[in-house]
Every structure is written in structure tokens, then in C-alpha cells.
Design a protein that fits this description.
alpha/beta, 7-stranded mixed β-sheet, globular
């Protein structure tokens, strides 16, 4: 055993497993250089090809990154260490603006919807061999998608946005393929891609979504797939505008073989229209979650796309979980048809808080972004310092390291729990933390 690295074993699988254990326990730190393959082979008494095979396994699992003669290193954020661990703990007495949860007061009660679903199940239980998608849910979902300009396509039901994105990526890509992701972007997605053995490629964006020039760049560099957040982008609040959608579709028309995935997790909490990119390439999917509008624990999202993609997703799903519970599907139908969520009122509620905070920050000379949804992104010169000073002031915000690859430092402020009386104190605290208030400066 190599005491310095915690690596042992004589088979490739055993060597790879020991490295994963060392990373998980902290013996091997993010960014740490691993021993050269030949050197490790000598010390373990195995063939260099065995070590090479172990390193390939680790690379495919998102644990290490290899760079030829520069060697292999533990990834800065290995798949075994979720980005959720990059956070500021919220002590007692500190307001939580970091977790990214919706406002509980804006979530509908679920008891009645679940009771209706249970009663329907008592009348006609779902058994093995029946269709995985509830016909009524499919009909309502398809009508809503069509109203938003999404092309006609088959419908699948998955366990949330990330589950849908994972299934689509796995249906088309192989380990080592590159996936273009918004930067800054959704931390869970930044973890998922390397965990699938894929390579995440950062793609710049502004308040109107991914920049066309950035999309052209990542495609030139060989990206096989593109993931775009349609509305309420996490963490920046960007929304793909109609002009930006036209520009992106023009870029994508020249690369029909690229896999396109759109995440519409903001459906139900935003009243801005969807500007879909769907069908701009041959293989595409759009996933629409219920979590933000109806509750994270529903774990249900609708997925549509081209027939080949949806068929592959459904086929693989049948071999695993089989289907998403029809109790949940029927409960969601009841929520949709009962008008349990007033989309306009929910959107206005989040919008008032978000716009008030952005305006107050800009009045204090602070750059802030938040066109849509429940988050505000604030670029900062010193991310760690800003998070620590805000925590000391009684406000916990999310460090930008959770959301970015090559993008500059920043912090994410979730406005869900803010009242009108909180806007000025939060803006003052942020301004103080980044050094723009009189008498405060951080170099």
C-alpha cells in the first residue's frame, strides 16, 4: 500500500476503488497529482497496463482528469464530492438565502390532490404491463407544450429535471464525449456530467441565455451535446429571449447531429413566455419539472423530444424503475386542473423581491443579475471573503464555486424568504461585504 496516496490493489478495479476511497475520505485532495502510471505499477508490483486501465475507469467516473504528460490529478470537484458540500453552513440566527428552495407560502397544499389520486387508484389500480405515462397527464402536458410552441413529440415522465437530463445524455453519449454547460450553471448538472464519464465544457451566457459566439466555440471544439436553461436559469436568473432563441437556432441548424437538451424547471413560477429551441437539431429533448411550482418532493417532470430520444429514455426506464408512480402523476393532474398555482401571482411575488434586490444593489454600485425566477447572481472579487462577511452579518448566501467552472467569482442570493423589509438590509450587507459602502474596502 502506498501510504502517501492510500492506493492499493493488484487488479484495475481494486486500484480504482482504493483511489475513490482515498478521495472520499480526504486522503487524496481535489487537484492532487497522482503518481505516474509506471511508477505506481512498480510500487504495486503490477503491469503498467493495469494501472492505465484503473486510471481510465477513474476518469470515466469523473474522479480524476488526465492531461497526457502533465499527469493525472483528482478533479477539482470529483464526482464523489457533490457541489452541495461547497456551501456556508447556516448557524442559528442567520437567515438562509443559500439553499435555493422555493417559498413555502407559494407552494400549494398537496393533501387534496393526493387524496384524489389515491381514490382513483382505489377505483382502478395501476398494474404491471400498463402504460407508464398516465393518459390524462400526457394530454394536459402535450397541450401545454404545444401552447408554448414546443413541436409535437412523444411524452415521458421522469423523476425530476436532473433525472430526465441524465437519461437523455446516457441515451446518446459515450464516456469521454463533451457536453456544453452554461457557466455559471446548475451545480447538480456540473456534478452529473463527469459522474457519467462525460467532459463538461463551459459555455458563457448573459441575461438572455447562452451567447451565440460561445455556442459556436464549444461546437467547434467538439461538444456532442448542449444543455440550455430556458427560463429562471440557476444561478443567474437568465431567460432565453426570442431574439436570442432565433440566433441560437441559426447556429444549431448547421450542426444537426448535436444533442440539444432544454431545461424548463421554471415552468409554473414564471410568466415570461418560453422561447424554445426544440427541434433545432435532429435529437432533442425538453424537460419540464413540477418541483419549483408544486414542491420539490413531488419528484416529477415531463419530458418530450424527438421519437428516437424519447423511445430510448422510456426503454431504459422500463428496465430500471419501470415508471414514475401514477399516484404522483394523477396528483399533478389534479394540481394542474384545480388551478392550485396562480402562475401570474407566483411570478409577480418572486419578481417583486428579485427586482427590488437587484435595483437596491445597483443603487449601491453593485453589479447584479436576475431577470427571472428566484435567484440573484452577484459577481464579487473575493468569493470566500464575501460569503464569510455576509455570514457574519447574519445572511447566508451560496458561494459561486458551487455553480461555476471558468466563470469569475460570484455569490447566489435566493430571494424566496425575503420580505420587503429585508431588501435594504440585505443590499447594505452585500455592498459592505464587497467593499462599496463608505469606509469599507477589500482589495
Amino acid at each position: 500500500m502506498l501510504g502517501e496516496y492510500g492506493i492499493e490493489g493488484r487488479r484495475a478495479t481494486d486500484i480504482a476503488a482504493s483511489v475513490e476511497r482515498a478521495v472520499g475520505s480526504g486522503v487524496l485532495s481535489p487537484g492532487q497529482l497522482l503518481p505516474p502510471m509506471r511508477e505506481l505499477a512498480v510500487q504495486l508490483g503490477v503491469n503498467p497496463n493495469t494501472v492505465g486501465s484503473a486510471y481510465r475507469m477513474l476518469r470515466d467516473r469523473g474522479v480524476i482528469a488526465t492531461a497526457g504528460r502533465r499527469g493525472s490529478r483528482v478533479r477539482p470537484r470529483p464526482a464523489s464530492t457533490a457541489r452541495g458540500s461547497v456551501r456556508a453552513d447556516v448557524p442559528a440566527g442567520v437567515r438562509d438565502l443559500a439553499s435555493g428552495n422555493p417559498d413555502r407560502a407559494l407552494l400549494p397544499p398537496l393533501a387534496d390532490a393526493l387524496a384524489v389520486a389515491a381514490a382513483r387508484n382505489d377505483e382502478r389500480a395501476v398494474l404491471y404491463g400498463q402504460a407508464g405515462v398516465d393518459p390524462e397527464l400526457e394530454r394536459f402536458a402535450r397541450a401545454a407544450l404545444a401552447a408554448d410552441g414546443v413541436p409535437d413529440g412523444p411524452v415521458a415522465v421522469v423523476s425530476g429535471s436532473l433525472d430526465g437530463i441524465e437519461r437523455v445524455l446516457a441515451a446518446h453519449l459515450r464516456p469521454g464525449d463533451s457536453v456544453a454547460i452554461e457557466d455559471p450553471g446548475w451545480g447538480a448538472l456540473l456534478d452529473l456530467v463527469p459522474a457519467l464519464g462525460l467532459r463538461a465544457v463551459p459555455m458563457g451566457l448573459d441575461d438572455e441565455g447562452p451567447l451565440p459566439g460561445e455556442v459556436q466555440r464549444v461546437l467547434r471544439e467538439g461538444a456532442r451535446a448542449l444543455v440550455v436553461t430556458a427560463r429562471a436559469q440557476n444561478p443567474t436568473g437568465a431567460v432565453v429571449s426570442p431574439p436570442r432563441a432565433r440566433a441560437l437556432r441559426a447556429v444549431l441548424r448547421d450542426v444537426p447531429g448535436v444533442l440539444l437538451i432544454e431545461d424548463d424547471h421554471g415552468h409554473g413560477i414564471v410568466d415570461l413566455p418560453l422561447s424554445p429551441l426544440a427541434a433545432a437539431t435532429d435529437n432533442w429533448a425538453l424537460v419540464r419539472s413540477t418541483s419549483k411550482a408544486y414542491g420539490p418532493d413531488l419528484r416529477l417532470a415531463v419530458l418530450t423530444g424527438d421519437p428516437v430520444t424519447v423511445d430510448r429514455v422510456l426503454g431504459r426506464q422500463r428496465l430500471g424503475p419501470g415508471w414514475v408512480s401514477h399516484l404522483l402523476q394523477r396528483a399533478v393532474v389534479q394540481l394542474w386542473t384545480s388551478g392550485a398555482v396562480d402562475v401570474r401571482e407566483v411570478s409577480l411575488s418572486y419578481g417583486r423581491r428579485r427586482e427590488s434586490l437587484v435595483r437596491a444593489l445597483r443603487e449601491r454600485g453593485i453589479e447584479a443579475h436576475g431577470s427571472n425566477g428566484m435567484n440573484v447572481w452577484v459577481p464579487v472579487p473575493d468569493e470566500t471573503g464575501a460569503v464569510a462577511r455576509l455570514l457574519h452579518s447574519g445572511w447566508a448566501v451560496a458561494p459561486g464555486a458551487r455553480f461555476r467552472m471558468a466563470a469569475p467569482p460570484g455569490v447566489r442570493v435566493t430571494v424566496s424568504t425575503l420580505g420587503a423589509e429585508d431588501i435594504v438590509p440585505v443590499a447594505d450587507a452585500v455592498a459592505s461585504a464587497v467593499g462599496t459602502l463608505p469606509g469599507r474596502r477589500y482589495d
